Amino acid sequence: MFSLMKRNLTLYFKDRSGLFFSILSSLIVLGLYIVFLKNGMLKNWSEVPHTVKVLDPWLIGGMLSVTATTTTLAGINRLVKDREQQQLQDFLITLVKPFLIQLGYFLSAVVIGIIMQIIVFLTAWGYFAYSDNIEVETNVFLPLLGLAIINAFSASAISLLVVTFIKKLTTLSTVSSIISTASGFFSGIYIPIGSLPTFAQTLIKIYPGSYSASLYRRLLMNNQLSSSFKHLSNNELIDFKKQLGIGYQWQSMTSSTQEFSVLIIALLAALLIVAFKSFFENLLRKDRRL
Questions:
Q1: What are the residue boundaries of the ABC transmembrane type-2 domain, all occurrences included (predicted)?
Q2: In angstroms, what CA-CA distances link 200 with 60, 70, 131, 203?
Q3: Helix axes 2-14 and 98-131, enclosed angle (nearest 10)
Q4: For 240, how many CA atoms within 13 A lie in the half-sphere containing its CB?
Q5: HEC sequence for 234-249
Q6: What distance in Å separates the CA atoms of residue 107 and residue 120, rounded to the nearest whole number?
Q7: What pLDDT is recorded for position 12?
Q8: Cα(184)–Cα(175) distance, rounded to whole angstroms?
Q9: How many CA within 13 A on the CB side of residue 86?
Q10: Cα–Cα distance list, 172 to 24, 166, 190, 244, 272 (Å)
Q11: Please, are residues 237 and 211 in contact by the beta-carbon 8 Å criterion?
């Protein structure tokens, strides 16, 4: 299993073009924000002091959610490539159990997701620290790393679930393009959730990645929100959070504990479905041999 992980990680990080395209969606999000979205959002929230220092971390939170989605999917795509190129069959005839082989693909995607989230965070933070003089408190780094790990596990499980049902590279390419494009929307970056109709808001609220974006925003924006809204009413702060997806409105606003629970449930549910599918496929193989 560990040799398979090492192989997958080596192939991912050696493929420079694949590496670039796996974070392209995050870079596009950053570019769109700088060129088009930022000025409009600054005008909309001009009554909030130090608005730019509130909105920049908001964007970073969304970028990290997108990064986890696209990079773990790119990492676990190796499973489909190996299946189509018959390399997966070579692994299956060894003494290694099929479960451990799938676990190797899954864990390599988790490692990729963690590393790439760290890289994107440092890149975005460095840019905004230079351009807008934003600061991130040092006591936030450890919780951020913990969230990046949980987010990578959850996104990898969902990616594994997706690719488990894909047999062809052509199908994989199409699905990957759709997910990469849609991830920015579902993380509430291109258009803040408060500006969308009810149906679109519901779609975002049932997407697990939107909750990782909210958790990141809570961590990155907490101190600045307290500072910027100290002379404004609590209702204005609540409205700001509703509009920008820092928590989501169901019967009441979601808490960080509830959002964390969504990621864990998504992780366990995806792995459970994959396990059941693998179990029944193994039963069918045994029946065919009899």
A1: 17-283
A2: 22, 21, 33, 5
A3: 40
A4: 26
A5: HHHHHHHHHHHCCCCE
A6: 20
A7: 92
A8: 15
A9: 0
A10: 17, 6, 25, 32, 22
A11: no
**Token digits of residue 16:** 């420079």
Query: Which residue(s) pair with 253 in the sheet?
Result: 249
pLDDT in tens, the chain (290 residues): 778 889 889 989 999 888 998 999 999 999 999 998 999 999 988 888 999 999 999 999 999 999 999 999 999 998 888 888 776 666 656 656 777 888 889 999 999 999 999 999 999 999 999 999 998 888 999 999 999 999 999 999 999 999 999 988 899 999 999 999 899 999 988 989 999 999 999 999 999 999 999 999 999 999 999 999 988 888 999 999 999 999 999 988 999 999 999 999 999 999 999 999 888 877 776 666 55
Is residue 172 within 8 Å of residue 77, measured between CB atoms? Answer: yes
Count of CB atoms within 10 A of residue 170's CB?
Answer: 10
For residue 281, what pLDDT is reported? 76
What is each CA distance from 256 to 27, 117, 214, 262, in whole angstroms? 27, 20, 8, 10
Q: What distance, in Å, lies between the first and last C-alpha atoms of the chain? A: 29
Residue type, 78: R
Task: Identify the residue whose tokens are 């509009």.
Answer: 243
pLDDT computed for residue 61 by the predictor: 96
Q: Where are the alpha helices (DSSP H) in 85-233?
A: 87-92, 98-131, 141-164, 169-186, 198-205, 208-228
Cα distance between residue 160 and residue 76, in whole Å? 7
